Amino acid sequence: KDENMENCFYECCERCVGSLPWASLIATILLYMGVALFCGCGHEALSGTVTILQNYFEVMRAPGGVLDVFTIIDILKYIIYGLAAGFFVFGVLLLVEGFFTTGAIRDLYGEFKITACGRCLTAFLMVLAYLFFLVWLGVTAFTSLPVFMYYNVWSMCKNISSVEGTNLCLDLRQFGAVTIAEEKKVCIGSEKFLRMCDSNELDLTFHLFVCALAGAGAAVIAMVHFLMALSANWGYLKDASRMQKYEDIKSKEEQELHDIHSTRSKERLNAYT
């Protein structure tokens, strides 16, 4: 029974562990693609938003250190820089951990011993990956807001003939981009609205935000993959640690039985002589 249990454990490790590095590699590639798409397209979309605000809504940057929409956009750009750098390092750590854990399990019954430090590192990365998963969910929800707003403006430009003659205006005060005292709006049929619809800034900025939203969604999927891989690694490490303890106890019992048989043999031999 013990031998069957041991052979079953070996077969499970050989079948399941081999897929772990590929899962970590796929998740890392997906994470890098999502982060690159979100950061690159998001940065350019924010720059396009600045151009639209300055050229068509005539919003000017506030003097001094006043917090305005342009300052918020600059802060968002710095956040994008931090996301790009931070998740590059985080992806490398998760990829290395996935390959290291796989190699550790394969070499478990050699000289390698699973330590508590390795299990604690895997548990820490699991918690970190879960927190980043929640972060990317929030980023995805936040990115959907400009996509929705730009889609409304873009659809109005594409269907300008159907809304012609109506008294519709795009007022930045409704979006919190300017203060209540400032009246920055563009109405349908005005020259500014027509120039904005004919320009490339609106169409390009809208599609850049859509690509940024897709990148954030890809990052969410990548974090789910990492959570699955880390959970599998944790389970394998835990089972391997138990099996290692079982092997140690088994070896001690076999050694004790061997010592007992040796002692009894010596006693019989002495009694015979």
Automatic annotation (TrEMBL):
Transmembrane segments annotated in the record for this chain: 20-38, 78-100, 121-151, 204-237
Signal peptide: none
Keywords: Membrane, Transmembrane, Transmembrane helix
Record flagged with keyword Lipid biosynthesis: no
Annotated Gene Ontology cellular component terms: axonal growth cone; dendritic spine; filopodium; neuronal cell body; plasma membrane
Intracellular or extracellular location(s): Cell projection, Dendritic spine; Membrane
Any one GO biological process: neuron projection development
Protein name: Neuronal membrane glycoprotein M6-a
Organism encoding this protein: Cyprinodon variegatus (Sheepshead minnow)
Lineage, uppermost ranks: Eukaryota, Metazoa, Chordata, Craniata, Vertebrata
